[in-house]
Write a structure and sequence with these properties.
- The complex is a heterotetramer.
- By secondary structure, chain A is an alpha/beta fold.
- Chain A has 5 domains: 4-53; 56-139 and 237-315, 3-Layer(aba) Sandwich (Rossmann fold); 151-232, no CATH class; 318-410 and 504-594, 3-Layer(aba) Sandwich (Rossmann fold), CATH 3.40.50; 426-503, no CATH class.
- The longest helix of chain A is centred in the N-terminal third of the chain and has 24 residues, at 4-27.
- Chain B is an alpha+beta fold.
- Chain B has 2 domains: 1-30; 32-137, Immunoglobulin-like (Sandwich), CATH 2.60.40.
- Chain B has 5 helices and 10 strands, in the order αβββββββββααβαα.
- The two termini of chain B are 45 Å apart.
- The relative contact order of chain B is 0.15.
- Chain C is mainly alpha-helical.
- Chain C has a single domain (7-370), classed as ABC transporter involved in vitamin B12 uptake, BtuC.
- Chain C has 15 helices and 4 strands.
- Chain C has helices at 7-17, 19-35, 39-58, 61-65, 74-91, 95-123, 128-150, 198-216, 218-228, 230-235, 240-266, 274-288, 298-323, 326-356, 358-370, and strands spanning 173-175, 188-191, 194-197, 268-270.
- In chain C, a hairpin with a 2-residue loop joins strand 2 (188-191) and strand 3.
- The longest helix of chain D is centred in the N-terminal third of the chain and has 29 residues, at 100-128.
- The termini of chain D are far apart.
- The chains are: A alpha/beta, B alpha+beta, C mainly alpha, D mainly alpha.
- Chains in contact: A-B, A-C, A-D, B-C, B-D, C-D.
- Chain C binds chain D through residues 120, 123-124, 126-127, 129-131, 133-135, 137-138, 140-142, 144-145, 148-149, 323, 325, 327-328, 331-332, 334-335, 337-339, 341-342, 345-346, 348-350, 353, and chain D through 77, 125, 128-132, 134-136, 138-140, 142-143, 146-147, 149-150, 153-154, 170, 275, 283, 328, 330, 332-337, 340-341, 343-344, 347-348.
Chain lengths: 594, 160, 371, 355
Amino acid sequence: MVLSPFIAIGLLEYSSLVASFRLFATTLAVTVTFMVMDVRVTIKFERIEYMNEKKTPLLEMKHISKDFFGNQVLTDVNFTLRPGEILGLVGENGAGKSTLMKILFGMDEIHQTGGFGGEVLINGESVLFETPIDALAAGIGMVHQEFSLLPDFTATENILLNREPLKYTALSELFGERLNVLDREKMTEISEKAIKRLAVTLDPEMMVSQMPVGHKQFTEIARELSKEATDITEGIKLLVLDEPTAVLSEQEADSLLKAMRLLAESGIAIIFITHRLQEIIDVCDTIMVMRDGKIIKTVPAEGVVIPEIARWMVGREVKTVSHKRAVQDTAEREVLLKLQNLWVDMPGEVVRNVDLDVYKGEIIGIGGMAGQGKLGIPNGAMGLFPAGGKIFFEGKEIPLNSPRNFLDAGMAFVSEDRRGVGLLLDESLEWNVSFTAMQVQDKYLKKYLGGLFKWRDQKAIEETTEKYVKQMEIRCTSTKQKAKELSGGNQQKVCLAKAFAVEPKLLFVSEPTRGIDIGAKSLVLQALRKYNEELGTTIVMVSSELEELRSICDRIAIVSDGKVLGILPASTESAEFGLLMVGQHSELVDGGSL
Amino acid sequence: MKITFNRIFLMRLIAIVVVLLFAMVLFFIGKQHTVLLDNKTITVNGEEIKALKMVEVQVNKLEALEFVPRDRDKVEVTRQKHTITISYTDENWEEISITRKFTLPLMEEMVIISIPTLAANPDAPQSVWLEKYELPTYAVQAAPEDEVVVTDDLAGLISL
Amino acid sequence: MTLQRTNLQKVKRFLGNNTVTILFLVICAFGIPLSGYSANYLVSEVVVRIARNSFLIVSLLIPILAGMGLNFGMTLGAMAGQIGLVFISDWGIVGIPGIVLAMIISTPISVALGIWCGKILNMAKGREMVTSYIIGFFMNGIYQLVVLYGMGAIIPIRSNSLVLPRGYGIRNTVNLIGIRKSLDNLLMIRLFGIPIPLFTLVVIALLCIFILWFKKTKLGQDMRAVGQDMEVARAAGIKVEHTRIVSIVISTVFAGYGMIIYLQNIGTLNTYNSHMQIGMFSVAALLVGGATVSQAKIRNVFLGVILFHIMFIVSPMAGKNLIGQAQLGEYFRVFVSYGVITVSLVLYEIRKKHDRGIAGQILAQEQGVEA
Amino acid sequence: MNVKVEKIISTIMQGVKSFGLPRIIIGLFLLLLFIAAPFVGVNIGTSLSDTFNRFGMNAVMVLAMVPMIHSGCGLNFGLPLGIIAGLLGGTLSMQFNFTGPASFMMAIVFATPFAVILGWGYGQLLNKVKGGEMMIATYVGFSSVAFMCIMWLLLPYSNPTMVWGYAGKGLRTTISTEGYYLHVLNDFLSIQVTDHLVIPTGMFLFFGLLALMVWAFLHTKTGTAMTAVGSNRTFARASGIHVDNIRTLSVVMSTWLGALGILVYQQSFGFIQLYMGPFYMALPAVSAILIGGASVNKATIMNVIVGTFLFQGILTMTPSVMNSMINTDMSEVIRIIVSNGMILYALTRKTEATR
């Protein structure tokens, strides 16, 4: 099976070929001319046949573009999808996959940020969904990464949530149809039918809270499948699966893939988003690779190998790695921080068993796909989420689950959750910058009566804040301005200033550039770089942007499934990282538990 | 709010009307009336009607009451249509029993029936022997001191 | 992915889940012999109180179903019921017709108050209970404004026995002689010398059947969904806000009916304080029966009424026999009523927090297995 | 021209917004009452005097809200717990026959350990129920009052001015503070401005002292931490603050201030109200600070002063003015509606993004 754009390109090439043949023909023999004409006719014939067979693709997205306040996230995205086709959509975090899906579903987020450019066609008709409900009515279903299931409902109840078949009761004449009674038998029947289509064993009467994760996933898919055509809605035609296998065991994933094939055979088109490339190759008809908001490649899945995809994903050979520090012999360097068997319980981000050595003076990056545990490492080490295992700092063991001990040891953490963890939104910049240093190290305090009274030293606070405002170029009206009034980039700078004020020996930075514009991004990265070089502070930086890590770090650890898969020097080619992220490793890997 | 005249709106309208009608019916059948029965010598249009010596009066199927002259008693009834039966012995030692139907005005709390008048004019319209009655006003004025309103709900806490 | 529990842990969990009920069983076990009441007396008192209070308590169930916690705003319904009773007393409608008419009058008032209350609670998601509690207080002010200053002045009240001598406002107590026990006495049977108001019990049974049926309706299902996770319900297209409002409206209307049933048994209406305490006592009784902020069943209602009211009946006498002061027992039962609510709320919050920590325990266990 | 008008309007709107619409309405209402007062024959001097007096009586209890709001424990509906500590202090001081100003000092001394112990326990409890503090605080207050009802009957008090005459034991429902600490603060340095207008300087000074202490505390390291805990608990935790300890400290402070508050109240009021007396004491204090502009997680000393003045002013003025005007005393109803309406308003407002 071949995708239509390829046909189009192929045809173009053919027609130019044909033109040249025709030119040729005027000077060549008539028979040759005839031959050429013949070819041409056959081509034409083929094309007509093709158009007849697939006259209207199920879904067509044309010239889709989207920007969030000037920040271009999608540029001219085109693709089509036929009934029964499985399209594998891959790309790094931030490549634009989720934005594309949000556009498809008409999420509020899109409408509130100024809509999008281009056109979405379903069965050849241009559509514009106001809400996801409209999209559902048109027969598009989505299974999210996070389960949207009710824990105390059975599978059946969840599958038919808000679409329950009803039995008439007289009271409904008066109080509306919501007073009709649920038709339990019919509900079971429908859900069993939907489950059967998946060809899995799933007890329709089982409570979701007692299900293994895989069954929850199947319940979600069955919910989409159970949507049959009614007079106002259409039966399910297109299913979007957003990383459905991320939380599944291998066995569960296998049965899911089988189920997907079954569905495709019954004519349902599937868009399959995943980071597990082998799955894509196994199950998809077509693979579409996105990067930086563009479609890089759309190829038939047949014959593609993982390294190829990984290369497409990570893409561009980066020219702008700003520094190349001599890779020193790591064996001789002093270990500053040692993580042993660290596990962290952080919602949506499970760290299972991390071993990691951080050397003094280096910048080490931690990368990996979303939800694989990279964010959990600093959060768990700091003690913001329940954690277990061991951490040694400068050879001493630091007790876990106690932020105070973490800070006292001389470490600091800039959280990825700026608004939730990083800032006192309702307080002034002064407070935000000075607070941690004041509390942990008794800075900016005047002491009276031999330290019994520790009075806030307003002047010292102001001076420090002003210093950092200048140094970091924080744009604000005054140091008294409230943190919530600043832009994202400036808020991030405040977070960094807060950490710098503590003057830590080791600084954890988590997603320092998330959600801020390019100008602020480079400022933040520069500040980190400078801090590391001037004061020799060791930095552990967590980021989902590999290029960012490569531009600033000495070494990069890749985390997957809650474990460190491997550590590579930052100068390693992107493709190697890409491979590592998707679970394929080469000999270059120099550490971590495998 | 947009009103659409669909089936459910109609149904609700009907239901509300039915409930209102039902409420009215309840009003008719649940309204309590006090009927005072009076056996006193009374002067009507200059003509004196003597009280009956000994009379037994029964309203509906309630307990029968006995009256001697100057007696007054009351019965409490609901609904509007009632029957009254009086039985007495006249001067000729004849047992006389009169049964009459009467209708109470809906909003009347209290009416008085003069038994002698009824006995004298058993066939007269009910307005002759039944009239509305109002409590003498001095009864109300007798309680001039203002009642102290206790809105503190803690009082109820202890004495529940 | 569930933690394996040992038997000891299971027992602990059972005790933890039923702390309040067990505590009450102990109180009653000590209180009954101390009070010296005969079994016959106690049983007949409890029967009376079941008939009197159950309806009110059942009205609390539906907001719990919708995840809105204990509806302290049921006092609003109680107020509506009382207004209905004031009107029928004024008009002199007696007996069963009087009760039914009072219910009919209370309904639109309850619905209006319920909608208002539901809207406010939608604005205060996450702290419904404390808000509904304050709504009760706030509405009490409006109620006083209407009953103490409006009735007789703006709203016509003719009866002198109702209106204060100053000419407007309803008196402290309204005698409900016309409807007193008319529901209870409609079908009173005696079993082993214990009078049983069968008709009232039938009404309560009908309400319970309604609640059970209601849980099977689409609306009931929607409420369960909203109660578990508002966002998931919203994503499925359920009108979350509307559903929550409806649950409060139903609760308020039933509370109004419950109040009328309650007062026909008592026989007098304390115009300015009957309603205020009723919310607290109903909530306490429900919690004693083993319900929590997030889960309540009909059996909790009856177990609760029985245990709570046994405590209520015996404590003054027990106090008198123990210390020589009946007042001590009275204070004791007030303390217990409030204490019960406190303990239940605290246990609920603690358990909620504990349940959230389970994922961590699983991870720790996993580590233990792997290491 | 037009632009100028628009600018003025927008400045006014800004001002209204920052000051809060409910406060402006209540303030205007109070102003109206003061303007109307002379016309209906109410003496302004007496009214002002009353208002000052009640301000002094209640301000400390309103101040008791501040520490808990600062640490993010929400409105202290559990104020009765602090009041109980105060009652214990007051009654103990009388039991040991301290008289005059000394009895007030000793009441504070006796009340302090109770306030600390009760506050500590209460704080521990609130730490276990983060997120549901307000409802639980309410019921902790109620059940502790009911528990103390039993204790007032049982505790072995013996001072004949305090116990029931006929039984010789069990405290009375109201105990006069006359001869003990009646008006010790009211009369201290009080200024007689006119016949009707007296300024209870001592009470103001006492409140001023406590307010200064709270203000100063909030400027120390620990005070700063407390504010941060209330503003964003996770932030504070990530800055190495032991959140639970700070919260407990705030609850102890609130409880202690509540204890002092009730003592100040009693010395002016003249009576100690036991048993169900403290039951609903929290609500007026809560609504006063809300009227003053505080929210569920932000409060300042200014909110306390403005709120107490507005709330007590209305409580003083409405009965006298209304009574003279329409011969009806609706003040109780107005109090209920205004105070609970204020609490509702605060509860339904979306709290800041950080929570």
